[in-house]
Amino acid sequence: MNEPHFRRDGAWVGASVPRREDPRLLAGRGRFVDDIALPGMLHAQFVRSTVAHGRIVAVDLDDVRAVPGVVAAFSAADLGLGDVTALLDRPPHEFVPTSMPVLARDKVRFVGEPVAIVIARDPYAAEDGVEAAVVEYEDLEPVVSDTAALADDAPLVHAEAPRNTLVDVSLFATEGIDDVFAEAPCVVRVRTRTGRQNALPLETRGVVASWDDRDEQLHVQTATQIPHQVRTVLAGCAGLDEKQVRVTVPDMGGGFGQKCVVGREEIAAAAAALRLRRPVKWIEDRRDALTAAFLAREQRYDVRAAFDADGHILGLDADVVCDMGAYSCYPFTAGIEPLMASAEMPSVYKVPAYRVRGRAITTNKAPTGPYRGVSRPQYVMVVERLMERAARELGIDPVEIRRRNVITVFPYTGVNRITYDPGSYRESLDLCEQVLRDEGWYDVRDSGRVIGIGYACFSERTGYGSGAFAQRKMQVVPGFDISEIRMDVSGTVSVTTGTMSHGQSHETTMAQIVADRLGLDIAQVKIVQGDTDRITYGFGSFASRSITIGGSAVAAASEKLGDQLREIAAHLMEVDVDSTELDGAGGVRLRDDPARRLSFAELADVAYLRAHLLPKGVGPGLTATASFDVAGDGTFSNATHGVVVELDPGTGGVEILRYVCVEDCGVAIHPQIVEGQCRGGIAQGIAGALFEQVTYDAAGQPLAPSLMEYKVPTAAEIPDIAIHHLETPCAFTANGAKGAGEGGTIGAPAAVLNAVNDALRGTGVELDDTPIAREAVYRALNSALEGTHV
Amino acid sequence: MSEIRLVELTVNGERHDLAIEPRRTLVDVLRHDLGLTGTHVGCEHGICGACTVLVDGAPVRACLVFAAQVEDADIRTVESLAAPDGALSDLQREFSAHHGLQCGFCTPGFLMLAQGFLAERPDATKEEIREVVASNLCRCTGYQTIVEAVDACAVRRREGSCA
Ligand code: FES
Ligand code: FES
User: Fold this and answer.
1) Is the ipTM of this complex over 0.90?
2) For the segment B24-51, what is each residue's pLDDT rounded down to a tens digit?
3) SS3 assignment, position A291
4) CA of A83 to nearest chain B CA: how many angstroms apart?
5) In this complex, do B45 and A253 lie within 8 Å of one another by their Cβ atoms?
6) Where is the 2Fe-2S ferredoxin-type domain (chain B) (predicted)?
7) Does the beta carbon of B6 lie under 8 angstroms from any beta carbon of chain A?
8) Nearest Cα to A643, choosing from A600, A611, A676, A685?
9) Sequence spans of domains, chain A
10) Which of A135, A414, A575, B134 qualifies as a cystine partner to A715, CB 3.0-4.6 A?
């Protein structure tokens, strides 16, 4: 493919080159899971639980098997697979391990839980088959909220988890913290609930599994962010060696964390393919995606903050309860949300004293897993509310109180024992406020309309190395990445990465990194991702780790290969290796005599076709492998978001008039892509603040099973977003880059909520829950009006 | 079980004879019977617009239409936008230039929506474009760059016709 060659200062990194993914995606020639068709392929659908909590008395699939077009139907007993079990190495009072059977066995725990798999010649027949299934349940009392789950006489979702508690950790408790609160001149408190949300990738989950007799391998093509972990679990459940399973990932239509856990449907479909020795495809429909895919975000916070009279924070005391639904997700476990919130709540502020308890509660609702930002949208919202509340109480400007508290001297080690690398916390705050002032929004705010301005100031840990995850005591410890680079005879390279793009453009950005390290054109670099046969091991893409960790591994492998090329060139030119250098144009030259050079193609020709010319001790071929892990506690991107909203007293509606984001992700490999990540993230954050919520009735029946009820914002609700970049290069990564995937989602709910509350100033009402209910805004505005009449 | 019917479709100028169940939706026929997998399925209930194609020039949600209903129509899918040699159309190029796509799953739907709209309303304002873009869902971009891409295409086309 001919790429236009855009280079800034001779470097690929930092240039917004055209994305290499675009031509195929724009022409309709991408290849997503559902685009795959194999000879003899069959189609799967699932019989799913209609009750929230029940004992399975009988599963009768005889009528299913009689439906025309149906080829097979399996219950848990028929498939006989092992369970999916995610573990933390924590003591029993802190963590209760629970297993998720691939198909429900004795009990169902949420509406939508898969009970049987139906395999048919086409998806229509598979659905006919599902309708013919007869499953008999003995109803058990469902537990539909975390408060109900914690009640003394609550029914148990998992017999092994007393008080329906899967995780209960008190990670930090500064000595003397009670005295801090007792003596503080100002103590504010925020109690908040955030709604259950669906990450909702536009492409639902899906898999095509087939047995390959030639490779003696089960080939699973699936939309996943974590191909290697899918292989590990699948091999374990099905009793196969890992070499007997190959997981590959085609183009992916988003993931946002929902595809970052191992789904039981993937395993069931693969097991059916293994059993039938025929390819089986499962494509999740939107109804199933809305009711049975992994959800996130339903959390309850009760947090107090102590301040001195000048607005300096003295301490935080937090109780966090996360409603994780029916099962622990693999590999993260139900600990993912409470552990994240507990460890990182102090956020960008200097907090001297801290106590936190974090709990994961199990209920009869669809299970939860990671979703873009993981807990940070919630705790940032809480901490930013506390700042605003203290500012109000102490009569300090809300931006000024943040200014007094943000970390400004780096590296800074917090009360949470995390060391933050340098960032621009203060600068981003100042700039964001300045932009809104310069644009005149403060004048508009004071003009009599119901307008508010809100901010959120935050950091996000992005390069989580093994050390950070080991601290959580996960039994599967992600962190490192391994990259292999191979130069072919023509002097172009293929590079593997254990990360997995699902829209973030790794084919472009990883190639930029390699091109700079080797002095190649990006058209001469091929990125290989999403294939467990070709990639040693990897942890996929989540926690904005791809560029920080994956990109650093790719850079390290490239450098190793560069050294090999120089060694061969030095030998051929009969000089010392130190007198050679890469020439930035696909060759090696002499430092002192740049005209003398050998191109990579000439060197590769020797390495492969005339190996007898290689230096002694250098074997044929040109490959290099490198791994990378983050030293220290990782990297921290940061940002400040500023929002202007107008409230409609007639409807309680919230309109966003202006959105400004000042972000710092270190060196931006591709600024346009970074902006794209910010905007997309902010849209999802606004969605959480104003629109989206998964709700259930008292019996545990989902109330938003279609996009008619689950309101995803459109271009009419998401405003244009101005983005300003600051750049604090990161010392821990090879490229100076920090992650950029999640910040938008983290900052938006807090900024929007603060703006709404600013607009409600004078009404005496403060709103702390999301999504912000129109009725609550309406009531606040109108009761205030009534109030003024009295 | 259900009877099979002969259906004759014209897609991207090519005629196809199909023997299908009457309940088969247009999007399934396009994707799975004709192998035109560029058109995507995001919801199957008419909300997301990922399945948008042109039927006699107008954007239509192919998940809400049975193939048997559009026998006499001219159906266009995303595969028809680029030139036979693969050169992208002006609209496609603007999507790339403005980073109007990330995962690219919603993209064919937005392209066909915009293609149909701009043909009808070449002098559409940016506000009108935003309103039309609001009929489809994108989960990645936050929409701004999609609106900008469509607007830039409209502006260029107008400048081109003025020149
Ligand atoms: S798939 Fe047709 S509108 Fe969503
Ligand atoms: S680009 Fe991913 S859904 Fe639009």
Assistant:
1) yes
2) 999 999 999 999 999 999 999 999 999 9
3) helix
4) 30
5) no
6) 5-81
7) no
8) A685
9) 33-140+204-252+259-292, 295-467+632-783, 480-629
10) B134
